[in-house]
Each structure stands twice: as structure tokens, then as C-alpha cells.
Amino acid sequence: MLRIAIQKSGRLSDDSIKLFKECGIQFDSSSSGKLKSISANFPAEFLFLRDDDIPGYVEDGVADLGIVGENVYTETGREVNVVHKLGFSKCRLSLAIPRGTQWNGVQDLHGCGIATSYPRILGNYLKENGVEAEIHEISGSVEIAPSIGLADAVCDIVSSGSTLLSNGLKEVEVIYRSEAILIAAPGLSGEKAALLDKVMFRIKAVQAAQNNKYILLNCPADAVDKIMQYIPGMKAPTVLPLVTEGWVSLHSVINENDFWTNIEKIREAGAEGILVIPIEKMIR
Ligand code: ATP
Ligand code: MG
């Protein structure tokens, strides 16, 4: 059985639970006090933990897999394998200073105090840039440090920047970009590695489906070659005759981003009645 550690409650929890459910792995994630849950239809047990503890548990083999932010993985420095990027909980770690202060570059922080919950990532960044500054490690509410005189600057997680703004700070430098990742214990047994392969197969199918759409359109038969350039499909599009002479229905798969880039060209080539439909799972 695979033991999978996910965040108990926080910014990773909902998407982590959703991912495994979309992979068809059922487990009870509802009750708030629960720390463990065994899947009814896959050999997996889920552990609900604080995110900071997950890399350590995975390194020690208490959990076989875990989902954490890359920021936490890098900061804890644990020896685990990064299996896959998951594309959610995207955020950045940035330097911010009081809004009225001038900024010419990271060299400005020479001799300053910087408050952060990420001393390792910040320390490495300062070292790479040859800046000597004092790092004040605090575990939360980092953004109030300058206003209470604890530090000159902060280094904290930013997604929209509104927390910084409401504390009179401005973001001046992004030092690290993060998203959720799947990590695995080093040296998984053959049996567990096989289960991880199964999980990965499902995760990739779910991710491919999220990035792609099923597209149906009608076009004159002689426009098929041109339209195919924009929607090549998985192998090739399906072309079915319409009752209307000389017209066909073309079915294919298109990447979400490519759709918006190519839609005008597809229409110019003669496509009409275009339908774009979500895909639930996609296996190449
Ligand atoms: P815990 O109680 O489990 O220790 P926490 O308060 O440390 O939780 P969260 O705020 O839930 O952590 O954030 C978890 C992870 O989500 C972060 O490590 C980061 O990777 C990512 N994250 C943080 N803030 C944001 C945000 N604003 N938007 C998107 N992702 C974020
Ligand atoms: Mg935490």
C-alpha cells in the first residue's frame, strides 16, 4: 500500500484532494479532525499533515509520496525525489520593501535586515548576488516586520500582491517561483514503485485532459487539409461526411492555448459551427 501525505488544510489541500479524486482514487477527505484515510478502491492510505512536515516524512519513508510547494521542498532541503510538477498552487517568493523607499537593485539590501520564513532560499539568493544582509527568521505575518521596526525588507510568498500592498510594501524582486510538486521517498520498493507508476499514468491523463479540448466543426471538404494544419489531433482528425454535399464534420483535439491562437485562421479556412468541449481523461 502507498502512503500519500497531503496538506491537512491550506492552499494545497483542495487541489491535492481533487487531483487524486480525478485519478479515480476514492478516499474520505471530509471530516476535519481526521489524520488518515484509506482508499476504498486503490491500495493507498492518505495522511493529512502540515505542509512543512511533508518533505521530512517522505525522506524518512513514513510516507511514500507527498504533495508540497516547491518552495517548501527547497527550503527544507530534504533528500526526496521530485517526481512531477502539478501545475497548481503557483506562487512566487519575492523581496519587498516599504513603498516610499527607492530601489536600485538587490545591492541596496547590503547591511539591511530582512524578515522571512525562507532563510535557506533567501540566504542562497543573497550569496549568489554577493549581498551581506541579516536574515530574521519568522514563521508568519512576515509582512508586518518593517512597520514594527524588525526589518528593513521582507522576503515572502506573493500571489496577487494585495497583502504586501495593504502593509505598505512594494514587491521589488522575484527570487523564486513555485508550484505544487509530487515528491517520493528515495528507494521505493518494487511494489510501491509499480503503484507510483499507476498513479503517474492517471495524473498525466488528467493533466492532458485539462490542457486539451475536443473540437468539432463543419467545413467544406476541400478545406480539411488547411484546417488540419491547426488541429492535427492525437494521430489525425476524424472526418465524417455531412448530408450537405461537399461538406464534412471534422473532429479533433486542440490545446487550450492553441485554440485561441488559431481560431481566426480556422474560421478563415472555412470552418463553421465550431464546438469546443472539455475532455475528462486523455491517454495518448
Ligand atoms: P500549514 O498549516 O500546512 O503549515 P501554511 O500556512 O504553511 O500551511 P499555506 O498558506 O496553506 O501554508 O500554503 C501552502 C503552500 O501553497 C505554500 O507553501 C506555497 O507553495 C503555496 N502558496 C502559498 N501562498 C499561495 C498563494 N497565495 N497562492 C497560491 N499558492 C500559494
Ligand atoms: Mg506550513
TrEMBL record:
GO molecular function: ATP binding; ATP phosphoribosyltransferase activity; magnesium ion binding
SUPFAM superfamilies referenced in this protein's UniProt entry, alphabetically: GlnB-like (SSF54913), Periplasmic binding protein-like II (SSF53850)
Pathway(s) this gene product operates in, as recorded in its UniProt entry: Amino-acid biosynthesis; L-histidine biosynthesis; L-histidine from 5-phospho-alpha-D-ribose 1-diphosphate: step 1/9
Catalytic activity: 1-(5-phospho-beta-D-ribosyl)-ATP + diphosphate = 5-phospho-alpha-D-ribose 1-diphosphate + ATP
Bilayer-spanning residue ranges: none
The ATP phosphoribosyltransferase catalytic domain, residue ranges: 50-204
Span of domain Histidine biosynthesis HisG C-terminal: 209-281
Cofactor(s) the protein needs: Mg(2+)
Enzyme Commission no: 2.4.2.17
Summary of the function given for this chain in its UniProt record: Catalyzes the condensation of ATP and 5-phosphoribose 1-diphosphate to form N'-(5'-phosphoribosyl)-ATP (PR-ATP). Has a crucial role in the pathway because the rate of histidine biosynthesis seems to be controlled primarily by regulation of HisG enzymatic activity.
Protein family membership: Belongs to the ATP phosphoribosyltransferase family. Long subfamily.
HAMAP family per the UniProt record, alphabetical: HisG_Long (MF_00079)
Protein's name according to its UniProt entry: ATP phosphoribosyltransferase
Gene: hisG
